[in-house]
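Feature request disguised as a bug report, sorry. It would help if multi-protein outputs had a clear separator. Right now it looks like this:
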Amino acid sequence: MRAAKEGLLTICMNFDSEHVDLEVARRVVELVGSQGIIAMTDRIDTDSMCGQSLEKIEGNNLWYQGKGYVAAGSYTIDRLMHNIRAIGFNEKIVWNMTSFVPLKACNFLNELENLSMKPFSFIDETKKRTHFKAPIPELILD
């Protein structure tokens, strides 16, 4: 965590709330900061992975291997973003971890910096999708 806080590496962390404790996730974000974390999902949409059959158990959205080990989840990125908001983080932190830090890690932000108007899209809590272009995304998030 210290290396992520110092910008030496980036943590990829799940916020699905079924096999990840959101209080632990909240504390990691508080300690490291959103600039050192990529919020990821382990969602798969199939009942097999790497040649192994998977099954769901009633009462949750997890996929299990034959021995009962959790193999993956099935929540969307929208649910992940909802969970990050639910543990008290604002839109700037949500979007840093789900969009801007991953774009930076892929070196795509350099390409975006060359565009005068940058494309953005988001889904709010009511499931309404909005597309827009803005010159400086930080002004949108503040």
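(second protein starts here, but nothing in the output says so)
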Amino acid sequence: MPGPLDPFVVIARRAVAGQLTLEGFEAEFLALFKEADGLSDVEFGILNQLFHVVEDYVPDAADRDPGDAAAEQLLDAVREFLRHVEGSRP
């Protein structure tokens, strides 16, 4: 049975595999996040951790301020999200 995090897992896998740019991941993630409903408190917590990194992501180093996330930080957060979600599935 599909879960509410499944669309996020799909785009996360695509980003990690290089099939989706990080800018594309950012746009798709934010659109999905805006429409997400039916999340448990645990699922929202997992997603919210990734949201904060996505929100802080600035692709261009020249535009980045202290505290903004670079590509490596976003990819690390996406990988951590996948480990957390996929590690907790039966």
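Even a blank line would do. Unrelated, but nice: The mean pLDDT is 92.
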